[in-house]
Amino acid sequence: MKMWLINLRFIELKLSNFLITALFLVIGLVSMNNMVSIIHDNLRTYSVISNLDKRKYAFFFQENRVSLEGVLNSIGNEHIDITDANSADELLSNTIGKLSGVSSVCGVKKIGAGCQEAEGQVLMLYQLENELDEAIEIPLKKGKWCYNYNDDQIEVVVSNESGLFDVGDILHINTEIGQFQLIVTGILESPALEFQMQSSGDEMCSLDFVVPFSKNENNKNTVLVYVASRWDKLKDTHTSPGRIIFFEDEINDTEMADNMKLLSSEGFTADSAKLKKGTINQIRICISQYLPITIILFVIVILGLVSSTILNSLEYRRHFAVFFVVGCSWKQCIIINFMYICSSVVTSLFLFLCYDFFISSYSTSVYNVIITFAICVFITLLSSVYPYINMKRMTPKELISIENET
């Protein structure tokens, strides 16, 4: 206890330096963990999407011209030609009709006007259309994927951040057309993956396709639910703009190239090669953005902690000598300095955890935990080495003599 009180006194005397060092370490941890999260999310989601490579497919996104024209008309623009104001489904149908060798067209539907309530939870219901649920293997922590339904029970898999659900549980939802029972057949691996299937920019990566269920949405009262693919009782649905077009396995390379060329002229298109390239490029961009600044911040932190502990050992060398004279061992004196470093690292870690829990929108994996722990241990040990060596060289008599000379 006495050593902790001495350490607190050191912190009080060097408070500004202590806080600046802790702040740099927090920023460094945030930067490193953001980079790790983005890389992990890209690799994790791509591993799910890569299951599509077993089939010949293309991702296709075609904007709904009705929406754009409606917005322009609403602001009083009377010069809009709406003679070709087809719906998104009609535009898609016209495009698909020009292709060869199409097996099926799949999308993701948000069911029941977005959200339903059951057992005090807000359920976000999604449905993978047609063959998409069989083509993509979404990771499950427990149970099996949902395929079956009847008028009494519909199979679902759910996220389980609140820990309230288990395989076999029954959820009741009330809709305008009646009450339905959802039976849980599987629990999604955490963090659960949410389909969005939207293009962003000129290049598509796996995170444009599937994303970890947002921390801002994924609270204890919100549950991501995937419903059996062919359940069609709830008509009030919203389908994501992106579609997966599956082609017959027998289609030749020339026909496939012609299809891709046609799709590219009609909207945004990506195949497995483009998706993989976009994902790798996203990881490279992430590393180039985060890694240099992270390394610089950690170097600043280490130099700050080393200089702080050296200054402590020099400014308070008489105190350490007196401690030794009155019965303290060198080991105890070194521990006091070590406590200063640990206090700074623990303070930074606490602030980082507050940021990660309340502010960060990135998902946290076991890799984030391991890397954060390793960084904190490395900085603590490295920052303790030089001060330890510096103090170990001098005897109490030498310390008192140097102090008297000054």
Quick description:
The chain has helices at 2-13, 15-49, 65-74, 88-96, 132-135, 253-266, 272-315, 317-325, 330-358, 366-392, 396-405, and strands at 56-61, 102-106, 108-118, 121-128, 140-143, 153-158, 170-175, 178-188, 193-195, 210-212, 222-227, 237-239, 242-247, 268-270. With 406 residues, the chain is α+β, with helices and mostly antiparallel strands. β3 and β4 (121-128) form a beta hairpin.
General shape: elongated
Distance N to C terminus: 31 Å
Estimate the strand proportion.
Answer: 15-25%
Helix content: 40-55%
Calculate the mean pLDDT score and round it. 78
Note the run of SSEs as H and E.
Answer: HHEHHEEEHEEEEEEEEEHEHHHHH
Show the helix and strand layout.
Blueprint: H1 2-13, H2 15-49, E1 56-61, H3 65-74, H4 88-96, E2 102-106, E3 108-118, E4 121-128, H5 132-135, E5 140-143, E6 153-158, E7 170-175, E8 178-188, E9 193-195, E10 210-212, E11 222-227, E12 237-239, E13 242-247, H6 253-266, E14 268-270, H7 272-315, H8 317-325, H9 330-358, H10 366-392, H11 396-405
Parallel strand pairs: 4-11, 6-8
Antiparallel strand pairs: 1-13, 1-14, 2-13, 3-4, 3-12, 5-8, 6-11, 7-8, 9-10
